[in-house]
Structure formats: structure tokens, C-alpha cells
Specification:
Blueprint (H helix, E strand, L loop, with lengths): L13 E5 L5 E3 L4 E15 L8 E16 L7 H11 L2 E7 L8 E15 L9 E16 L3
Antiparallel strand pairs: 1-2, 1-5, 3-4, 4-7, 5-6, 6-7
Length: 147
């Protein structure tokens, strides 16, 4: 197979998280890492006979990790994520890895906030970071940006 010519970088990625009113907030300008983890439960058993294990599959799950910067603006990552922590509930997270370009793939789903860490380090000259962990509440869609 020939080497690909269609690889994308994350330079144009867009990350949106719903605010308390359900309006998507673009936190791309104050975040620098998003990781979507997809899992499927796989069970296994062995018998006295046979050389291989018996495996079956069942439920799927997803989790999302976001890394953002501590900023002072109201419509950026810190304020949006703190608001989510205060109010709870599920929010829509949408990740456009290649940007909002027609035909490109994106991922979206409803998530509960399960962890929120603020790193404050006097020895670190870079921006303070926020780390968010969220777990899905239902399906995560694998969609293409429409026209």
C-alpha cells in the first residue's frame, strides 16, 4: 500500500462543550488536548477442550479527557468547565479533529463530568492547566460535517 497523503494534524481541531443553557461554547482557543477513549466489554472463558479462549462482546462505553488553560475570559474553557462542575448534569461535547470542514469526521455525545483537576505549580512558567474527565451517557456519534 502506498503512503497516505491525507493525514491530518490537530492544528485546526475544534472542541465544543455546552454551557448551562445548552449552547455550544468553542473552547479550542483555551485548550490543547482532547482524548476520546472508546471501549467495548469483552468477556472470555476457557474450557478443558480446545486451544483458544472463547470470547464474546457486549456493551460499549466512551470517556473524554480534555486539557485546557486557566484563563480569565467568561466564554473560554475555565469558566465553561467550572460552570459544569457547579451545575452538574450531562453536557454535549463535540470534537472536530480536522476542523469544521464539510465532509470531515467529528465525534459528539452527551457526557457527565467525572473529574476536574486544576494544576497550580509555582515552579511552572507556562499557563496553569485544567484537566477534565468525562464519561458518556449514551451513544457517541461518528459523523461527517454537513454543508
Amino acid at each position: 500500500m502506498a503512503q497516505t497523503t491525507t493525514a491530518l494534524s490537530a492544528c485546526d481541531a475544534v472542541i465544543e462543550v455546552d454551557n448551562d443553557a445548552g449552547t455550544p461554547v468553542d473552547i479550542s482557543g483555551s485548550s490543547n488536548n482532547a482524548s476520546l477513549s472508546m471501549t467495548r466489554d469483552v468477556g472470555e472463558a476457557t474450557t478443558f477442550d480446545g486451544d483458544y479462549k472463547i470470547r464474546t462482546e457486549c456493551k460499549r462505553d466512551a470517556s473524554m479527557s480534555l486539557k485546557a488553560f486557566w484563563t480569565t475570559a467568561a466564554a473560554e474553557a475555565r469558566a465553561t468547565l467550572e460552570e459544569w462542575f457547579d451545575t452538574g448534569g450531562k453536557r454535549t461535547i463535540t470534537v472536530y479533529p480536522g476542523g469544521k470542514v464539510i465532509g470531515r469526521r467529528y465525534y459528539t455525545g452527551e457526557f457527565f463530568l467525572s473529574g476536574f483537576d486544576i494544576a497550580i505549580d509555582a515552579g511552572e512558567a507556562g499557563p496553569m492547566s485544567l484537566d477534565l474527565e468525562a464519561v458518556s451517557s449514551g451513544a457517541v456519534g461518528f459523523l461527517n460535517v454537513g454543508s
